Amino acid sequence: MNYKKTIELMDRVQFIYELALAKLELESLSAKFEITNSMRKFELVSGDEELLRKRVAYFKSIDGQITDYEKLFQFNQTTSINQYLTHWMYPYKGKFHPQMIRALLNFIKVNEGDLVLDPFMGSGTAILESQILGLNSVGIDVSPVCVLVSKVKTESVAVLDKIKEIKDEILKQNETNLTNFENPENKGIRASVEGIKDEKVRNFFLVAELISHSDESRRGRDFHKSFSNNVEKMLKSVEDFDKAIKEVGLKPGKVRIEKGDSRDIKLKDNSIDGIITSPPYSIALDYVKNDAHALEALGFDTKIIREEFIGVRGTNSNRIVLYNQDIMKSIDEMFRVLKPGKFCVIIIGDASYLGERIKTVDFTLQYAKKLGFKLIKNIDKIIYGLYNVMQKENILIFQK
Ligand SMILES: C[S@@+](CC[C@H](N)C(=O)[O-])C[C@H]1O[C@@H](n2cnc3c(N)ncnc32)[C@H](O)[C@@H]1O
Q1: Which of 28, 69, 152, 237 matches a 20 to 30 Å C-alpha distance to 252?
Q2: How close is the Cα of 311 to the center of ligand 1, in Å?
Q3: Separation in Å, CA 70 to CA 61, 126, 208
Q4: Over the stretch 344-362, which tens digit does the pLDDT of each residue have?
């Protein structure tokens, strides 16, 4: 009897773009399959089951055996299914959906030892997903907050024991601050955190502080209580990361995170095996304003810093002109550093400004093609958010 093995989609897969990516990732991992009537179960005709179990993003089991990614979802300290391991740390607007990134990493055929780049790293989703999948990666962002947060998400597991050693002491100092806040000698939790010698451990507590500033300013929570809660929750997530390495058998890739400018990437020509990124969508979101509380808490002057950020420079129609120039320079740089034959994924959406629709997707597409990128796929990513508001983005996949 010719027995075919079943590959089962995860229960949470619900959008058309996810189904499209699920099929694409299987094809890229050299699997031959048939889709059965239910659409949720595929039949594997041929393929390396072990490889598939290790790499796939959208499937929960292969021939009855649970995939690594389904296992990883169990290591989650939040109520949001995709904010597992350290993904949740810091409330960053416009984060990638991690599962989509894993599927795209499969689609662009990057393997162990390869180097992935995200030149608009944001909160580090693509870098963390690369690390989890065992790929080496470089993340660049102009925002010091993004650099700090991405480092903490990916580096804390290496200093887990040191974080545990110092945690009680820091929380005790926080308690003292809580009861003594009118004492002029009390310089607050920052003084305690700045006294930590190990940079990675210091960064961990600094991010706990930044999340607490956000809890205070956006949700009206008590700063000190938030700080203690955040430290505990972050620590549990880092412990989860450590457990996942041991229990799921992850071999984390190497990570390099730098503050830098996508218009002038400090990498050699033809040195990168794959790019997955999402630039600011024209001027849709003011990243400086959005993170002002955290930037200021780190001692930055937001008026000066804005000059380096794409999408917030200039006023009125000049803002669009500057955005277009900046995005062209960034695409030039991505093309330059990517190895010939390799893939560059740009996720972008249109925006509206001064009552007009800014066609960012078309602009990016046309410029990339003019530069010599070949468009391999253009996937509509349509989702409905809260109150049925449609969000449309495009996943543009180019090959150099
Ligand atoms: C759409 S967000 C990226 C979000 C990211 N994909 C994530 O999962 O969190 C765009 C990012 O571009 C960054 N950015 C703006 N101008 C930049 C520049 N000149 N060089 C590098 N990054 C820049 C912003 O700080 C912001 O984090």
Answers
A1: 28
A2: 10
A3: 8, 18, 28
A4: 999 999 888 878 888 999 9
